[in-house]
Amino acid sequence: MQKRVHFNWFVVTVVIVLGITAFTRCMDRGAKQTEGNAALQAYEEFAGSNKCVSCHTDIYNKHIQTAHYQTSAPATHSNIAGSFDNDKNSITYPNGSVIKMEEKDGKFYQVAYMNGVEAKRQPMDIVIGSGKKGQSYASWNQVNLVQLPVTYFTQAQQWCNSPGYPNKIAFNRPITSRCLECHTTYAGEIIEKASSKAEGFKESEIIYGVTCEKCHGPGAKHVDYQAKNPADTTGRFILNPRSFTRDQSLDLCALCHGGKLEKTKPSFSYTAGEKLSAYFNWDTTAKVAGSIDVHGNQLGLLKSSSCFLQSATLTCNNCHSLHENNDLFTYSQKCMDCHSTEHGNFCTEKSVSLEKKKNNCIDCHMPKQASRSIAVILPGQNFITPTFIRTHHIAKYVEDTKKFIEGIENKKNRK
Ligand code: HEC
Ligand code: HEC
Ligand code: HEC
Ligand code: HEC
Ligand code: HEC
Ligand code: HEC
Ligand code: HEC
User: Fold this and answer.
1) Distance (Å, rounded) from C-alpha 48 to C-alpha 63?
2) Are 215 and 268 contained in the same domain?
3) Binding site membership of 338 for ligand 7 (Cβ less than 6 Å)
4) Co-location of 405 and 357 in the same domain
5) Which ligand 4 atom sits nearest the alpha carbon of residue 129?
6) Which ligand has an atom closest to residue 81 CA?
7) Do residue 17 and residue 131 come from a single domain?
8) Is residue 307 part of a domain?
9) Against a cut of 0.85, is the pTM above it?
10) Which domain covers residue 330, as residue numbers?
11) d(Cα 402, Cα 324) in Å, to the nearest integer?
12) Which of 148, 200, 296, 414 has the fewest CB atoms lying closer than 10 Å?
């Protein structure tokens, strides 16, 4: 049984972390986009999203159901996506060695067996990925984090070899600060001499999930102030992206949805509102849609669309409400904020009724496309199975329109 995995989500550059002393930042940043002061954020500046619930109850309760919130957490029985059942909990490598996912005394392990004999056992300490597409697991090795060899691939509903791993058992791939910068709100790093091989982290200083303070900036001072001044109905010492300029807004999403960024400052230095280019070398030249993978670079694809190029204001937030999950109907209403018969730029497609169109612009104009970077070879197959991700190159797609219309016809015939 051969399982070969060919995905390589992101090329993560391991950069030697500079020893920069963290100092408290000026928290009352206005809407002005600063170059950035390049100070590492300090753990003490954060309150944690559970501190926001008492005053922003609705937002909090919706937000915890999003992929952002759920993208990392300490491993528990309920947040591990894969199965521990006996017939579904192992993968076999070409040399005959086996890894089994095992649960023991409330802890979870990936256990390697060579010739049926246990060779290595490593706990699954942290889940990375909401599981919408897949989930990887990190394990503590003293202060270092390693990515475990087996990942869960949701589309095939099975365990498989971790992205980019050689097709043999390996327990030594480091989890970098950049990986955590995209999948957590904060991770306190142990800054060591340049000679140290892997970056170290403080387990007690990890704020899991992409939560409130990633987009609003660290909030300890805001929580403290508002609690002590209940009569003040103005929010202080906290950022509201509503007042961001277009660039500020796009930069925030680009930190994690902007394709390949090469960091020039330590991870966790950039704060919402700042200029991303002060922290990363970043190729912002316009690209042809076909050259950009649908995974991980929604900004690049959006920027190649005429919606973006011919509008002065379009940002990710026109369509996405960051605190909650939306459905295709809701998204389609956002398209019609700009596209309507009154504006003289409504859809010119003729074969679908207006009513059907208004329910779903998305499947025809932002179809799901195969990712080149997230794709696996499943057991017993000799071809690649890709993950399908929504393209953000908004355009006219003839083939997808045909499929969409066939889908409607098929539904009619089944009735
Ligand atoms: C003790 C109550 C309290 C707590 C706790 C609290 N806030 Fe607020 N927050 C407020 C009040 C009051 C306002 C002003 C009224 C409003 O916009 O809702 C506000 C406003 C805001 C705003 C809008 C600011 C603006 O300029 O428009 C954001 C963003 C925000 N809070 C985020 C957070 C986050 C993130 C947390 C948790 C880290 C948090 N708040 C915790 C009371 C609180
Ligand atoms: C992925 C980014 C992101 C995350 C995570 C996030 N927010 Fe927001 N938040 C935004 C944006 C963007 C806006 C501005 C809304 C807009 O432009 O429509 C906003 C607006 C707000 C406001 C002001 C309301 C308003 O309409 O102006 C509050 C309060 C707030 N957020 C609280 C929170 C709290 C509390 C959490 C965590 C439970 C949270 N946010 C998580 C991006 C985020
Ligand atoms: C700190 C990194 C980070 C930032 C900043 C960030 N995102 Fe994300 N975003 C992620 C990750 C990681 C995922 C995938 C979560 C998962 O499924 O595990 C994601 C997923 C999403 C999704 C898909 C949600 C779903 O249900 O599948 C949307 C939409 C999204 N982000 C929009 C935005 C927008 C818009 C912004 C800017 C306001 C933004 N993100 C900022 C890291 C980030
Ligand atoms: C540049 C930011 C970035 C880096 C670095 C990064 N990721 Fe991601 N990751 C994302 C975004 C954004 C998504 C989801 C959106 C998409 O598919 O484009 C995602 C998706 C995932 C998913 C699938 C989640 C789901 O179920 O939807 C997993 C698993 C994952 N990443 C693991 C990792 C691991 C492990 C590392 C480090 C070794 C890593 N990623 C590095 C941004 C990043
Ligand atoms: C014109 C509307 C629009 C804009 C602008 C937009 N998106 Fe989306 N986005 C969508 C729709 C629609 C979906 C599909 C949602 C679904 O399938 O449930 C989506 C899905 C996503 C996903 C999940 C992709 C997947 O298939 O898993 C991510 C991540 C995302 N958007 C990030 C962003 C980011 C970052 C930006 C800004 C650079 C952005 N979006 C701008 C409409 C938009
Ligand atoms: C902020 C306004 C805005 C939003 C939101 C928006 N668009 Fe556009 N879109 C434009 C502009 C401006 C153009 C260029 C010319 C025109 O007015 O049609 C355009 C062009 C297009 C085109 C023609 C593309 C081509 O290559 O010829 C299509 C198709 C389209 N949009 C579909 C959508 C869909 C579907 C959505 C929602 C997912 C959407 N747009 C959201 C502003 C917007
Ligand atoms: C069944 C698939 C389908 C649906 C649903 C659909 N479109 Fe279209 N749309 C098309 C096709 C195909 C074209 C190109 C038609 C042509 O050139 O004759 C098009 C053209 C357009 C154009 C370009 C008009 C121009 O002048 O060039 C815009 C803008 C647009 N659609 C927006 C939308 C919006 C907004 C929605 C949702 C309310 C939507 N479409 C729903 C398939 C669809």
Assistant:
1) 13
2) yes
3) no
4) yes
5) 24
6) 4
7) yes
8) no
9) yes
10) 313-414
11) 31
12) 414
